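REQUEST ID: PR-0412
SUBMITTED BY: lab tech R.K.
PRIORITY: routine
TASK: structure prediction, single protein chain
INPUT:
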Amino acid sequence: MSEYVVVKFDERAVSLLTRILNIEYRRLQLELRMVEEKIKRFEKKYDMSSSEFLKRYSRGELGDEEGFMEWYGELKFLERIHREMEELKKIADKLSRKIPSES
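STATUS: complete
OUTPUT:
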């Protein structure tokens, strides 16, 4: 069960929160690009797609080679980045839609 807190902000606070959300979103975009590049290197090194890797890794076909564990970790990190970016988008949308401008 989710709990909600309603808070009123003046326009300056909304503007500041929006800037902070944008900064965090840009930071996540940078991390995303770095992780995607690492994943591409793993795909090239092992000559398989990440989806194929995940299937084989989860079935235990690839063993515990350090590179495979790192690849798996990067894929999980990629998932987390995507989730966080979606959450930031939702929050930013709520800020722009739900808080009336006090002009």
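NOTES: Residues 98-103 have pLDDT under 50 and may be disordered.
REVIEWED BY: pending
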